[in-house]
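Kindly go through the entry underneath: sequence plus fold tokens. Please state briefly how this chain folds according to its tokens.
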Amino acid sequence: MRKKSRLSRWLVDRYGARVRDFFNRIVIKSSLLDDREVFESADFAYLRPLEAHWLEIRREADQLVEQIEAIPPLGDVSPDHRRLDYTGKWRAYFLWGYGLRADRNCDQCPVTASLVDKIPGLLTAMYSIHQPGAHLPRHRGVTKGMVTYHLGVRVPEDKSQCFIRVEDRNYNWQEGQFFVFDDTRHHEVFNHSQTPRVVLLLHIRRPLRFPGSWIQNVFFWGIQRSPFVQDAKSNIEEWAREMDKKMSVV
């Protein structure tokens, strides 16, 4: 790892919590959404086209699941996520990551890519695939400057074995329907079923008034240039190159 990257990580680890807490207080004061755990779908009417085209999104997801071993665990793309999934059962196929578009991956999923490209405030878009036995322990995200969206794409039939717990309440995904929550709230994810669970996961900027909107822009500008995101971006690009080599040999 480069010395600059090591220094940047040290600075984030040492001072990141202070900056995060200050930022989150400003966000809540400026937010156009209530400070709640789970949001009403009516607050996100502009995401309805994803529901309307969910079968097309699923067809593209099914092609990915067929080659699941070629899709890297999220911990390989973003090593900072290994603490959540040391077993490698959380696979992630990125279309966007913190405002950076993965063009090669988008070309493989043209319908999904064309839909997410139109979403205002999009930061991240990926197929989040939890293989049987996956479990993400209780954790929480960093910033209230964004909300997390899940569109149910492939959901195991036994809902008692596959669900997300936000704070102290369990929620089930429904195929073709979306679910939006604040991932700075403690949450835990289970797939103890015998089949993969697939959702289209988005991170979207929380709608804010000024001055929160200005601080939000500065915060995400810094996040994009942080070693955490830059290392993940390099890993995605390297993986895409390796995939292209394999396909050219075949």
